[in-house]
Specification:
The N and C termini lie far apart (33 Å). This protein has one domain. It is mainly alpha-helical and 95 residues long. The chain is 57% helix and 0% strand. The protein is built from three helices and no strands. The radius of gyration is 13 Å and the shape is globular.
Length: 95
């Protein structure tokens, strides 16, 4: 079940980054790439450079399919939760 929790952490990070970009009237291509979204956010606000997403985007849509099964341990899940919370806090502070 930790894979599902990590998927939701990835989705949280993705949606908050997209919300920041929409707030700044930026067009967003269809993507689940946290690295790409962060790069766009950095162009607007350098504080996003401090975010290290590690490999959270590995838990995007591909992780939901049987051939791409991933099983993080509890420590990894906690790290991805911390990343999602960090992104949320930063975006909320900027809106």
């Amino acid at each position: 079940m930790l894979d599902v929790a990590c998927f939701h952490c990835q989705q949280t990070a993705e949606k908050y980054l997209k919300a920041f970009l929409v707030f700044h009237n930026k067009e967003i291509a269809k993507t689940h790439s946290i690295d790409y979204l962060l790069s766009l956010c950095i162009l607007i606000d350098k504080d996003f450079e401090n975010i290290n997403p590690k490999n959270i985007e590995d838990f995007a849509v591909d992780a939901r399919y049987p051939d791409n099964f991933m099983m993080p341990d509890a420590q990894e899940a906690k790290e991805y939760l911390a990343i999602a919370e960090e992104i949320k806090a930063l975006v909320v502070s900027k809106l």
